[in-house]
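Please go through the protein record below and explain what the tokens say about the fold. Record follows.
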Amino acid sequence: MADITLKNSKTRRVERLDPIIPGKVSMYLCGPTVYDRAHIGNARSAVAFDQLFRLLRHVYGEENVTFVRNFTDVDDKINARAAETGRPISDITAETSQWYLDDMGALGVLQPTHMPRATQYIAEMVTFIEDLIAKGFAYAKDGHVLFRVRAYTDYGKLSGRSVDDMIAGARVEVAPYKEDPMDFVLWKPSSDAIPGWESPWGRGRPGWHIECSAMSHAILGEEFDIHAGGSDLLFPHHENEVAQSCAAGHAFARIWMHNEMLQVEGKKMSKSLGNFFTVRDLLDKGVPGEVIRFVFLGTHYGKPMDWTEKKREEAEKTLRKWYAAAVNGTQVPEAVVVALADDLNTHGALTEMHKLDGSELGASLTLMGLWDGSVPDWASGSDMDLSALEDRLREARTVAMESKDFSEVDALKQALLDAGVEVRMSKAGVELLPGAGFDPAKLEGL
């Protein structure tokens, strides 16, 4: 069995994964708040930790890995969307949850072992909060329940901050029901217009942070192996999870993992810059899910990633080549597994795959979530046909340069464009690249 090492955000070290229960692994990933489509930044976390899930199943066996990824289906953003649209909240969360599953499925993301919804665990959250109050780590006031941050002396250790530095360097909500500005909400009152549940503190709803602590405890128990999420969740969400769970007496997660953020063409993704797009936007434009996943896996999860058009083109070209050479297989070469076992080095695994063909390549593509054993429709065109057409276009251009008659060149170029082929012509030569909508049938007459 391969030794898996992972970067633990809690200790800032790469550590060997030694499961709490030998031979069995448990993992929790903070999932989406379901009020809209997932953007590609959301997808990076889903793909990164789906790849870890696949590796764990490969090493330990599918039956020995328990993976939990939640849906946050009670949230002020969801309430606001319902108010804007006039639609029932339950309809919005049901629709957007299915959007998420469909879009992530298109990227090869497996469904986890458990997908709990926050609204299914309200009773567990109320019990959790009552326990924190009884232990002096939380207090109720004006229909709210808040966690006493200064009562938990290890607060800030996960994110590497001190409470005083947090107050000095951040905007902290000042509210009359807070004993201390840093205290965070565990429960808050609900008006008649928004979802609410009866509790010892009145009709209300849970704060965001208590959700994951209650659900992970209910499903995975007092302690589990891995807790994962985006680096944007490190503080305050994960810091608050640690505080409330450990204050309640739970050992909680042994290893914390965080993926870094995503940029687009070297810039922060932003609606104001016009470079914000969802996974569905890309899929609807004809970018295959396998290509999106390949681009994500080309950068280590712990490093910032830059989505570029050049990377998309290169990913598509590589996958076409690999699909043409792959054969179904089950034996993944040791070098690919070793790369993944080294803190989920997906870039290293892809590099090793350039050396493979046949069944070893097929097995590796399957492990990487890039192949289900059949060549996708978008990649079914023949590279040899394009190579022949490259030669033909090159020769036609040479003749046209002499005769000054470019009619054949123009006709060939238009036929290629109509078939979804990108035509690159320069002094260096001619290059044909099949695009996302490539239809080889349109080239049969050529």
Remarks:
- The first strand starts at residue 5 and ends at 8.
- The chain has 15 helices and 15 strands.
- Residues 40-60 form the longest helix (21 residues).
